[in-house]
Amino acid sequence: MPAVLEREASKLFSTAVFREVATGKSTHRADVAASTLRSELGLARHVTNHEVVEMAYDLMRRGYRSEYFYRNLLTSKVFVGRHRAARSVLLNEFRIGDSVADCVLVNGRGAVYEIKTEFDSPEKLRSQLTSYYQAFPYATVVAHIDDADRYLRLLEGSPVGLITVGPRDRLSTIKDADAKTDAFDVRTMFNALRLSEVTGILLAEFGALPAVPNGVRYAAYLELAEDMGPIVFQAHMQAALKTRELRNSRQLMLSSSIAPLRAVVAQLDPDEQQQDRLLSWLSSGGA
Amino acid sequence: MYFPYLRGKQYELLALKELSGLLGDQQRVVPIIEPVRSPAGSGLDRCLIALMDAEVDFVLALNPSVGELRTPLVAPDLADYLSQQDRSAAWNVGLLVDENTDVNALIASYRSTVDTKQRRLTLIHRGVANGLDELPALTSDLRRAFDVIDDRWRPRYFRDLLATSGGVTLRDGFPVEERNSAYLSKVESVFTDDHLFYAEENWYGFSDYVTIGEPYSDGGFTPRAVAIHWTYEPQTGGPVMIRHFTSESNGDTSNVGGKFLEAVDKLVAFLDTHDIHTQASEVMRAHAANRTYPGLGIVKKLSIQNHLELMSGILSRS
Q1: Interchain pair A216, B252: CB under 8 A
Q2: Which residue of chain B has the CA closest to A95?
Q3: Are the beta carbons of B54 and B20 closer than 8 angstroms?
Q4: Which residues lie across from B227 on neighbouring strands?
Q5: Distances (CA, A) of B82 to A166, B34, B61, B122
Q6: Count of CB atoms within 10 A of residue A154's CB?
Q7: Which residues of B touch A212 (CB under 8 A)?
């Protein structure tokens, strides 16, 4: 895949771009990216955005170099394929401590997937894994099949799993992930949650919250969370995250027509009106 | 006179609006407002009404250089807005001029979109335009009131313009740091001494970018450190200084409220030592005493209000 195409494709496959389309704020960035792709791919003007998206995604898939492609693959194969997008939550680009996890799947257990494309170097991996184990028991590296040996050597003797992506988008488990529960850190987990989720957990545990001014609320709530201990708080955190399941867009998620955009849909969970805007943008052609 | 240069962001407009009574009483401040969002429902309208009611003169820039309305010529949204205001006939409107300005096109767009009969015009020279020499002739029949000149440029270039207008010298006294945590090690610095010398140097007024600084950023993200910027006058008749009160626990982006309290505690200790009692200072004292966190926008608003009140007070003393 030529570099310019790759760059333009990565501009289009972005949650920020589609959020603007879905919320009705502006289709400008999406239009610009689609029209550049149209001309780079030698497509006529009337070719719909949907077709542009499909073609650009297909090129990305062949290149195996885009992080978005891997995220979308995990969304399709694991979240939709294995879990039918129900009773589980897929968090994309989820902040944990100083790192951002590419994908976190929360069902009965909490599993972090760290994507390493051909272009990524394994350097940051150690500090990323340290962060992830402060919040979740399972971590798995997802890499291209050609990099399997390299990562297998790197992960030997650790609880970290390894999944490779091979021809025809096949995911193969090379090494199972083992649970690691001795590194949970209450402050890291507390910071990963929304305030409403934290108050929900504390209310369930303590029945009431201390009445403190908002400047010292964080410290007071964190102290309560610390009192719960890391194992108990972790279980509550996972339960709280599970309530972030798709409310609006499960049907859309299951439909194969938006397959290239599943990772975007997982993050946006567009409501009916937002889905209409997305679909209407997809069905329109270039200006 | 003091001409604070403010971008029309929510908290900047709110700062002006809430302080309009005091500024109106003292009559020493003419805010320059560069709108960055469409005037419809942006708070710009409410701010300008408050300023008019308090009889505070202001300059409304019509060709913003930053934000949503950014355009080299008069922004259509702002021209529409002007034409819809009953009370806007006597407003002072501003045009930004820099190296890239086509002065003929700019003045032509001003004439064609704005009723120029009663309105006063202020040229804001952020740079030296190529056609600077043509500007006196191009604007000779317009009611040009002020020329605001960035102090990076020699006033001599603008001599012909200044012959028929009030000159205002503009200096950015705010020491910008990329990260808030860098203010931890920063000592106080001179913010301005223009108020001491502007009249002697034949300026009608002086201007600054308040406690925000010239660089513009839209929106923001959660910072790792909270910094409160506060101007004060250590000695009556001396320069105005700026100090920075910065949080200490800046390892991550969590607990902004707690970091604010770390910073405001330092500020209040300083205010008490120097017996400083601007309106904004008292609000900060109350937050420190009640352990409340008002949000970063309000912190910025209070910093601006403190500065405006300080400058207005100094000028109305003399």
Answers
A1: no
A2: B253
A3: yes
A4: B246
A5: 63, 14, 11, 16
A6: 17
A7: 291
The full length of chain A comes to 287
Tell if the CB–CB gap between A191 and B287 is shorter than 8 Å. Answer: no
Min CA distance, B22 vs chain A (Å)? 30
Helix (H) or strand (E) holding B25, with range, is helix B10-26
CA dist A85 and A71 (Å) reads 15
Token pair for residue A45?
């003007």
A interface with B, Cβ–Cβ < 8 A, is: 97-98, 187, 190-191, 212-219, 222
Number of residue pairs across A and B with CB atoms under 8 Å?
A: 35
Q: Which residue has the tokens 């780079």?
A: A40
Half-sphere exposure of A237 (CA within 13 A, CB side): 28
Instruction: Give SS3 for A214.
Output: helix
Neighboring chain B residues of A217 at a CB cutoff of 8 Å: 257
The residue behind tokens 């000695």 is B235
pLDDT digits (tens, 9 = 90+) for A70-120: 999 999 988 888 888 788 899 999 999 999 999 999 988 899 999 998 777
CA–CA dist A79, A73 (Å, integer): 9
Q: Cα–Cα distance between B31 and B29 in angstroms, integer?
A: 6
In the predicted model, what is the mean pLDDT of residues B104-122?
Answer: 93
Closest chain B residue to A221 measured between Cα atoms? B255
Cβ atoms of A57 and A260 closer than 8 Å: yes
- Would you place residue A287 in the very low, low, confident or very high pLDDT band (cuts 50, 70, 90)? low
Amino acid at B29: V
Nearest chain A residue to B290, by CA: A213
Task: Give the range with max mean pLDDT: A59-68, B154-163, B258-267.
Answer: B258-267
Yes or no: say if B284 and B268 are a contact pair by the CB < 8 Å rule: yes
What gap in Å lies between CA B266 and CA B86, rounded to an integer? 47
Whole-number Å distance between alpha carbons of A68 and B223: 27
**Quick count: other Cβ atoms within 10 Å of Cβ B60?**
24
- Residue by residue, DSSP assigns A129-167 as HHHHTTT-SEEEEEEEGGGHHHHHHHHTTSS-EEEEEEG
pLDDT tens by residue, A15-38: 999 999 999 989 999 999 999 999
- Dihedral, CA atoms, B86, B90, B91, B96, nearest 10 degrees? 130
Sorted by sequence, the CB contacts under 8 Å of residue B275 that are 6+ apart come out as: none
Task: Tell me if ipTM is over 0.85.
Answer: no
Distance CA B268, CA B291 (A): 12
- Tokens at B95, concatenated: 């045009």
Please check whether residue B277 is in contact with residue B259, taking contact to mean a CB–CB distance below 8 angstroms. no
The answer to whether the CB of A228 falls within 8 A of the CB of A187 is no
Is it the case that residue B281 has pLDDT exceeding 70?
yes
Q: How many CB atoms neighbour CB B19 within 10 A?
A: 25
CA B197 – CA B148 distance, rounded (Å)? 16
- pTM recorded for the entire structure: 0.86
Q: What are phi and psi of B241, to 5 degrees?
A: -105, 160
Q: Tell me: the pLDDT tens digits for A192-246?
A: 999 999 999 999 999 999 999 999 999 999 999 999 999 999 999 999 999 998 8
Looking at per-residue pLDDT, the higher value among A60 and B3 belongs to: B3
C-alpha distance across the termini of chain B, in Å: 11
